[in-house]
DNA sequence: CGCGAGTTTGATCACCATCAAAGCTTGTGG
DNA sequence: CCACAAGCTTTGATGGTGATCAAACTCGCG
């Protein structure tokens, strides 16, 4: 199931559709949004702290992350994105970026001009609600990460993150059964979880030893979903995937 | 400067005005929003995980927090609110609450029906943008907390939080010069920062010993703003307080 | 085949959690 | 107005999770 052949906003629409019943013309309007497509190597900044972009970014293929740095140079990933996400939709209303956005794996991304977004929202107010909701779900994920990184130990945190990624990937049709691709280094996982990369390595070994995950190259296999869920103290409520559509 | 005599949405409007130039009728519409006012003792839940509220909450006086629990009962505060904040504006589009909202100090709060919010937003689309922006700023604060709690040590984290609170309170006209009221226990600060309360106590002693803060009962005094800022590695950009209004 | 990025391992140490108990404050009722 | 109780703050001691440093190993890739 590669996304190569699809239009760059297909997955976004797919995802939004699962929680919202579009009218035909609303869907048309989304599909007709002018999008400038680009491919990126891994590890490239897309937007940086302090920038004032005039467009926002749509992940079509690959993984990206949002990160922040302390003045000492320590890095925290504050979000991970899967295809279908719009990582910097916030830039529509917050002029100057408080975060940096970067590709984690090779990516194909689409850029949508803010002006075009505003036009669509103006003409179809229900789309405003859908996009607003998208940013609210990201905020909800931030909150869960705060709980995760603040109150669970590294082993559990990592289990939790695997759960989240599996669910989010399956929600956009990526990941087969109990398997998904995760083209991300241990250093990046460590930065997301808030541990050192050395410790992250040991945590991953422990998770493998306990049979919670298996890895084959960039692939992650979850042999026992219930066990992983329990280890990660995972409840998918915060992803808001199964709610009735917003009015 | 007590807020007792003011209408319950005054501070909210004040805050929004500082980043957005309302038209007269827009401001009128906000001022005419029906609000049901209530007073609360400290430590009361306002909304709980799993609820499906039909209204949202506006803090008029006092402090509130958003928290989440692990299944082991560990608590993480994921947000603190000052007067003028709308802590659960998200409930307008995310039906079931992924968080609990509680008063930290005695509070007076106002409740606005979702339906009324939707009416106002429908009639004045620019207000939609303002409210949307409000939720985006809260998300930005979440991200900074992720960085703070994940990459700084407790001493620095706490300094950072003091900086944030001073700025946010001054933005709504609370706090005189270098002083502000902070009716919150060390246990709650610990839950926000992600440390034990014992360690929080020692951190506060260290901050006092180093002259970064003084405390008199519930009052916090910041004798040397620059030093506190440096200790907390604080940059107010993420609060988005000084931007040109959203179009 | 060799380079560089990423992973793995070992050893030491610091920050902070945890447990336990004693002082302190604040509000409430007698 | 005082006394008591409950919640909050403070202190001490011990131990664990995870940071840090250093170096070897693996693997994909040009």
Automatic annotation (TrEMBL), chains A, B:
Signal sequence interval, chain numbering: none
Protein name per the record: Crp/Fnr family transcriptional regulator
Statement: the UniProt record of this protein carries the keyword Transcription regulation: yes
Domain called HTH crp-type: residue spans: 152-226
InterPro entries per record: cNMP-bd_dom, cNMP-bd_dom_sf, HTH_CRP, RmlC-like_jellyroll, WH-like_DNA-bd_sf, WH_DNA-bd_sf
SUPFAM superfamilies membership: cAMP-binding domain-like, Winged helix' DNA-binding domain
Keywords tagged on the record: DNA-binding, Transcription, Transcription regulation
Pfam families: cNMP_binding, HTH_Crp_2
Organism: Modicisalibacter luteus
Membrane-spanning residues: none
Source taxon at top rank: Bacteria
């Amino acid at each position: 199931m590669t996304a190569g052949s699809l239009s760059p906003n297909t997955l976004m629409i797919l995802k939004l559709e699962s929680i919202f019943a579009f009218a035909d013309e609303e869907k048309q309007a989304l599909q007709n949004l002018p999008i400038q497509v680009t491919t990126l190597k891994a590890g490239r900044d897309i937007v940086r702290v302090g920038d004032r972009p005039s467009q926002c970014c749509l992940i079509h293929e690959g993984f990206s992350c949002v990160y922040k740095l302390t003045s000492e140079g320590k890095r925290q990933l504050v979000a991970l994105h899967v295809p279908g996400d719009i990582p910097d939709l916030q830039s529509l209303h917050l002029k100057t970026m408080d975060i940096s956005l970067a590709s984690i794996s090779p990516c194909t991304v689409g850029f949508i001009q803010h002006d075009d977004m505003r036009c669509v929202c103006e003409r179809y107010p229900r789309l405003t609600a859908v996009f607003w909701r998208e940013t609210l779900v990201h905020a909800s994920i931030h909150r869960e990460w705060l709980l995760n990184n603040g109150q669970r130990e590294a082993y559990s945190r990592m289990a939790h993150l695997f759960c989240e990624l599996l669910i989010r990937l399956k929600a956009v049709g990526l990941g087969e059964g109990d398997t998904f691709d995760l083209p991300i280094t241990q250093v990046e996982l460590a930065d997301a979880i808030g541990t050192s990369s050395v410790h992250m390595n040991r945590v991953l070994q422990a998770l493998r030893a306990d049979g919670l995950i298996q890895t084959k190259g960039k692939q992650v296999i979850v042999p026992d979903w219930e066990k992983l869920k329990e280890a990660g103290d995972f409840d998918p409520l915060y992803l808001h995937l199964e709610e009735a559509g917003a009015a």
